[in-house]
Amino acid sequence: MANQDQQAPLLQLQDLTVEIIGGARRHAVHGVSFEVRANEVVCVVGESGSGKSITAHAVMGLLPVGQVRVTGGRILFQGQDVVRLSPDAHRRLRGTRMAMIFQEPMTALNPIMRVGAQVEEVLELHTRMSAGERRARVLELFRAVLLPNPEQLVRAYPFELSGGQRQRIMIAMALALEPDLLIADEPTTALDVTTQAQILHLIRDLQRRLGIGVLFITHDFGVVAELADRIVVMRHGDVVEQAAAQELLQSPQHPYTRSLLAAVPHLPAEKSPGQFGRVLLRAAALSKVYAGHGKRPVRALHEVTLTLHAGETVGIVGESGSGKSTLGRTVVGLHAPDAGSLRLNEGELLGLRAREARRHRKDIQMVFQDPYASLNPRHRVGDAIAQGPIAFGVPPADANRRARELLELVGLDAGAADRYPHQFSGGQRQRIGIARALALEPKLLVADEAVSALDVSIQAQILELLAQIRRRLELSMLFITHDLRVAAQICDRIAVMRHGEIVEIGHASDIFLRPEHPYTRQLIEAIPGKGWTKPVPQLPERLGGEHAGLLNADIR
After folding, report:
1. Which segments of the chain have a pLDDT < 70?
2. CA dist., res. 248 & res. 254, Å (int)
3. How far is CA 77 from the centre of its chain?
């Protein structure tokens, strides 16, 4: 790695402007200036559409040709303006002195190429190492990023690895040539809290050990509190605030920054358990095994027993593979268990004939993790919401009128019924998914990772929306998530799952403040920024001036 003058910035953005050719908003990035020095981590924070990822892609020279272009300012890397480099020169720079970790490794890795060969390919293109030296270097990198059994993993394909392992492969690939600058674009957003903690620790350890500069892009202030030396806050393509990490986290100056900080899920305070009605849902000894095709069978559920009362929200928390989504899909009827009993209002749901099962289906509805994937892109959202009631005999005119009422209930305009899914933001699509689930007037709502992919501010809106709807409609809810902070915001009780079993269940504040199982304590300890005390205790009811309504939807 090249020796850097510790006083000189490694990367400088000077009045950078990036234009979207033919876009509704002309400038994706406008007048952005900040710097990254060697041996420091600079976190760029903002919601989707703030311009943070486009800024990173501009630095790397990865803007899509003919769609997005730099139209002003400079990007100085080690004193050289990379905007003026030819594509070949920028490619050589990317391969040796700057590298990037992408948000979704499954899309960044070649699915039909072994992961060891993909890392080795970087060395083959940019070094004169022999085949033996390249293989030895790949194993060395895999050990450096703490991958288990590197000798076996080099022969694995991406689909055979967990999300955390795939992200470690991406980090190994990025570090293969010991770059001076590492750019990480939301590398932990979709990971479990324990895996996230491992990746953050790994990046910080590598940064300190190698003395590199890190530009870390995220929307999670918990991650920022854990990692950042300095923070840059972006909104609508502009930098609205930047400062040293401790200064900004404790004394934010801009209203937008304060609102982002206020939206971060907080740990629950002590509170007394709520009073609820009769038992609505009763699961007894549910078990489910997925038979492997030539591989070892996977025990997804093992004698899971759970009750849910009318008006109560129970959180199901655990890492990927814990069985929480299988449990949710079993309750909805998308999976059939191998054993056990599932009763709604004391009526058995399992083993019913199709016609009998259909009568109960409207009473249990689901909000999926990815609303875009669950909405038909060729159907207007009003039609998507009305389809369920129409299928159960409601006249189309009444169903369509109800669809518009539901859109208003979830904080959207009734006119949104005439638009298509792609015309909405991620948070708006999730509201549409909630409206569709409510169309059949269910008694129980199952929300499967319904906010995990959303910005922290949008996440706060959806959590508040779900809480309001539950109170207004007296709904029960099964809330599935891998984030204990999120569960604490909305759940009355929390069940912690691991390897298909419920290892602990209790009142939400008890789970946080007095966890009994070692695994629960491990999950809590891994929460990013757990030791950081937020300067603003709750989300402001309304932002004034140009920020009015920024983080709070008008929920009617």
Report:
1. 1-7, 23-25, 190, 267-272, 292-295, 453, 531, 533-556
2. 10
3. 30
For residue 242, list its beta bridge partners. 232
Q: What is the CA radius of gyration of the chain?
A: 25
Domain enclosing residue 158, as ranges:
9-263
The total number of structural domains in the chain stands at 1
Q: How far apart are CA 314 and CA 301, in angstroms?
A: 17
Question: Is 244 inside a domain boundary?
Answer: yes
Q: Is residue 227 part of a domain?
A: yes
- The tokens for 547 are 């920020």
CA distances from 300 to 195, 213, 321, 336, 482 (A): 20, 42, 7, 12, 16
HSE at residue 386, side-chain half, CA atoms within 13 A, is 19
Computed from CA positions of residues 509, 513, 517, 522, in that sequence, does the dihedral angle turn out positive or negative? positive
State residue 183 phi and psi, 5-degree precision. -105, 125
Q: Report the CATH number at residue 51.
A: 3.40.50.300
pTM of the model: 0.78
Half-sphere exposure of 418 (CA within 13 A, CB side): 3
Specify if 437 maps to a domain: no
Structure tokens at 348: 């058995």
C-alpha distances in Å from residue 98, one per residue of 16, 166, 171, 393, 434: 19, 20, 12, 60, 42
**Closest CA relative to residue 77, chosen from 64, 63, 89:** 89
Helices (H), 343-416: 354-361, 371-374, 381-391, 396-409
Helices 426-438 and 456-473, packing angle to 10 deg? 20
Q: What is the pLDDT of residues 298-320, one digit of tens each?
A: 889 999 999 999 989 999 999 88
Confirm if 73 and 31 have CB atoms less than 8 A apart. Answer: yes
Q: How far apart are CA 18 and CA 52, in angstroms?
A: 11
Whether 108 is in a domain gets the answer: yes
8 A C-beta contact, residue 184 and residue 196? no
Q: Encoding tokens for residue 546?
A: 């140009």
